[in-house]
Amino acid sequence: MDRKSSQGGHRRADRVKKRKFRGNQFTSEEDTSFTSTSATKLKKTEDEEVIIEDNYGYCILEFISVFTALTSLVLCATCKEEIKFSRTASRRLGFKISLQCGCDDVTYINSSPFINKSFEINRRIDRSERRVSCASMEARTARKSERASENSQFEVEEGTLYEAGIAD
User: Fold this and answer.
1) Where is the region Disordered (predicted)?
2) Rounded CA gap, 19 and 42, in Å?
3) Domain locations in the chain as residue ranges
């Protein structure tokens, strides 16, 4: 007998190898003894919200929902009554927040830093709009000059086609 036939016949070329056992797919992983210590500590913590202390920056928020929640939590230091938040002096995206309580003291807080006669957020938006408009103006100028150079090439070609003796 020959060596190949002694193993039980010829193997087919398209036969797939047997898959290895990778564990029971129908059981849940409740045994965490194989995980690392840090993984078990992270699993035990109940904090889902990560607090990021980014004290300076801009964000967009809905005024009513945020400040009604703050109203229920904040009390005046002098009269111990609830503080009422309202929005005043709106200038585009910048505005002032007024704080009113029972002791008739009204305090105003700017929503962003106030530089000369404008809010900083408005200046930043104006600057970015100018940059975008300058870039689009430069692109329009470049396209216009390309078209002009193409038209000048056609004019030169038209002049060479019709010379003095051919048109008569």
Assistant:
1) 1-32, 143-168
2) 34
3) 63-111, 114-158
